[in-house]
Design goal:
Layout: E1 31-39, H1 42-51, H2 62-65, H3 78-93, E2 97-108, E3 117-129, E4 135-146, E5 151-162, H4 164-167
Antiparallel strand pairs: 1-3, 2-5, 3-4, 4-5
Length: 170
Amino acid sequence: MTASADAVSPGPISARTGDDTWFENFMVGARWRHARGATVGEVENQLLTKLVMNTAQEHWNEHVMADSEWGSSRLVFGMITGSLTIGLASQDTAENALAEVGLSHVRFRAGVFHGDTLYAYTEVLGKSPAARPDAGIVHFKHWGATADHRVVFECERTVLVKRRAHWRIR
């Protein structure tokens, strides 16, 4: 992946929830596309945008949007885009998580509209021991792209992940 996250085909599609989501399995520099995608519909945009009281007309008013650069297409609230991207990545990055430690470098790179399908990608940026012996810290970069390869979201995420040796029943 380039620093700008323009590359959206960094490697194989991951297997669906395998036995390789322990701290020891994550290798710095590994990159992959997650197996599932999600098409964003009106329900996600309307319900969540209104629940959090985001009153930006770009999200709920087609009349106002008719004169915008996007025409009458309503923009999906960015936090929905971010949440879907992280959610799609979580099966492979947080299956054995004990805690979400941090989220940083959040960037919304392009608009998402109703009907866009999002796919999530991940790169392992780093890993380190944790203060506790049963887990370690993994630092990920996640990005979301539409089916036509537009990168729409990126962030860095730090997760406390279980160590196999401690948690695995022998």
